[in-house]
Prior knowledge:
alpha/beta, Rossmann fold, GMP Synthetase, Chain A, domain 3, 3 domains, six-stranded mixed beta sheet
Amino acid sequence: MASNLPTVVIVGRPNVGKSTLFNRLVGKKLALVDDQPGVTRDRRLGEASLLGLDFQAVDTAGWEDEDVKTLSGRMRQQTMAALDGADAALFVIDARAGLSPLDEEIANWLREQEVPVIVVANKAEGRAGEGGIYESYALGLGDPVPLSAEHGEGVADLFDALRPHIEFKQPEKDEPFDPDSEEDEPLGPLKLAIVGRPNAGKSTLINRLLGEDRLLTGPEAGVTRDSIAVDWEWTDPRDGETREIKLIDTAGMRKRAKVVEKLEKLSVADARRAVDFAEVVVLLLDATQGLEHQDLKIAAMAVEEGRALMIAINKWDIAENASSLFNGIKEALGEGLAQVKGLPVFAVSAITGKGLDPMLGAAFELRETWSKRVPTAALNRWFDDAMLNNPPPAPKGKRIKLRYITQAATRPPRFVVFGTRLEMLPKSYERYLVNGIRKTFALEGVPVRVNLRSPKNPYDANKGGGGKYSGQS
């Protein structure tokens, strides 16, 4: 899905503050920032606003003078590709360090492009940046904009410089959404996160879906560091309909004991936030390695966050003993993730494209299930039958009374059971209710939450009054 906002690309050599500026413009810490150069490797997009001027900001990898076959060289190619179709470029230099030969090389390349370029002299707070500001005039790209991306100084000057290039492309403002207009917020583009251990082929899979080398890939483990979101339109081969998807690539998640570098810890935390943002999570397994304990931990995390989860076994084109591998993984998932029944499992290949369309079709269906609302009348008819077939126990002769059930929310489906003495209800009976809801109302493959709530007793809080207990699956 193409954005209707003008596009502004941030370029520059490593460690001049591009990601800090990106975060400042989008108003969130979306890009990882660290003193170590080369943190950003893929293009990252975010909706930015600068004093009412709206645009899509693009953070890029630091420009390095390396052979295209190296990781740094492939990163530079991603930066060059980002400028295609852009409305303006912000060329960031380090005012405190002054100009370098690499700055001059980038400036020479930018002068050959048709995109308007604004030189941003970052880290210009105080007098230490004055020399770099004066030096930047020699780049031949016009007056520099002194700025401190970290402290927010100079944004008004940046607004003045950027405004002539993108003001005419400002979109019409949408009417504000009325939260009372519908019971549930309408479904938009499918937010689909691809997660897994390093080198499972996550970025390669997304590039295959997009039909271009949009994300940086390579044999090196841990190439992806940021969680990268890409808007995309997929044509469903079943009906020819075009469906919008926001694909989210994430950093590989290794065992906690192996995550020792500060940067990798930031990357894993970023991947966890991506899971929280997603609607459907695809756990990508490596067919050459099978299902490992770390995979189950990643899956459990997605379920705990309430996301709809599906499994894709990648590198199927080179899998050995494919049938036994597939059945073994399904059996292990059933044992290791007993709290979620009926997880969809797909055999795919990011290289050949095998199984990707069925996987995407199932992802949309899974989101529908995840967003399902069960009619209250049907829910309580099932509830009465469930208690008739298996009445709640009476521990120590005290009767547990379950009165009625209602669905409190969707995404994931959440239900509230009202009754008395619910603090005495065994966990096994909660699982009985959860499994019954899942089976009866076709909620396989998604987390189901059940909260237990007792009526408030204003006279004695110790007699079951005001208690709130929860069970989930």
